[in-house]
Amino acid sequence: MSYKDDIKNFVIKDDPIILAIETSCDETAVSVVRSGREILSDEIISSAVQHSAYGGVVPEIASRAHTEAIFTATERALNSAGIGLNDIDAIAVTKGAGLLGALLVGVSFAKALAFALGVPLVPVSHIRGHIAAAYLTDKELEPPFISILASGGHTAIVNVTDYYNHKILGQTLDDAVGEAFDKVARVLGLKYPGGPNVEKLAKDGKNTIAFPQMLKNYKGSAYDFSYSGLKTYVINYVHNAEQKGENVEKADIACSFQSAAVDVLIDKAFKALKETGYNVLALSGGVGANGYLREKLSERCEKEKVKLVLPGKRYCTDNAAMIGAEGYLQYKKGNFADLTLNAEAVVKL
Ligand code: KG4
Ligand code: ZN
Fold this sequence. Notes:
By secondary structure, this protein is of the alpha/beta class. 45% of the residues lie in helices and 17% in strands. Strand 7 and strand 8 form a beta hairpin. Helix 3 runs parallel beside helix 4. The protein starts with a helix and ends in a 17-residue tail after the last helix. Bound molecules: 5'-O-[(R)-(carboxyoxy)(hydroxy)phosphoryl]adenosine and zinc ion.
């Protein structure tokens, strides 16, 4: 019998132990998650320092780093969970979105492991994984709720109507918010990864510059975002000042940009809460690690008596535990792949 035939006969367990693998960008992450909610281990080997000199992730370097790290990360994840390969009930893996070469390392490794162990192979959307991090944070959490998805590749307000159906209320029409952080970081002379460095610099600055308001006369969805204009405005602001020989207060630029980029996320999320009548809000994606966003969001939720599900910073940025959480949901549905599974650079939100 082939693996493809096996799929039809896999038994779906109630409390599966899932080994989850994430290699979409510059983190080789492997985690063991029980029943979709309990993290037994969570390992990350990052190649960020190798990209730092180039001002952004170099796909070729990321792919190579994944091939070098994936065995070690898996061994560590099994050891710290205190389990062996034979205890694994399924392998979940990020199939996209992300860098194709990087994704292929995880997908190929996951396929080989699933085949060798004779267990289901569960393909997972990285984006849905970010949203599912909320289930690891609050073990009692059940949909519906609103999720702010704010990462390096995506920005959206998502109505999580149930475990499987997500309604995108609005999303960015151009750049993602994390991308804007990274590009602003570059023009301010800050190193990759840009987001955390902009946040650090912003702490020394004041919100004194009125950057343009997003989509002011836009007729589309009230939940849509646009970060390209804001980013360009900041870049031009810096260049103009430099050409005139004016002294720019970089910390003020960082602080003003951070407010302009983040405040709108909060406003739109609360608009969604009001419109849907929900009172649970979750934060997801790498920008969710931003201290200013976390603080502002916590204050607003407390004031408006909204329950906030705030994953730890490690579970906002890329990790494999979130892939285990979403992998569990897909496992329960029997959404298994065969060995023809391919990586996808772009997946639908
Ligand atoms: O979710 P993520 O780790 O990867 C993607 O799926 O894209 O998000 C990465 C993005 C990067 O753009 C990074 O600069 C941003 O999240 N980021 C931050 C912070 N930490 C990470 N942005 C602002 N403040 C932070 N502290
Ligand atoms: Zn991500």
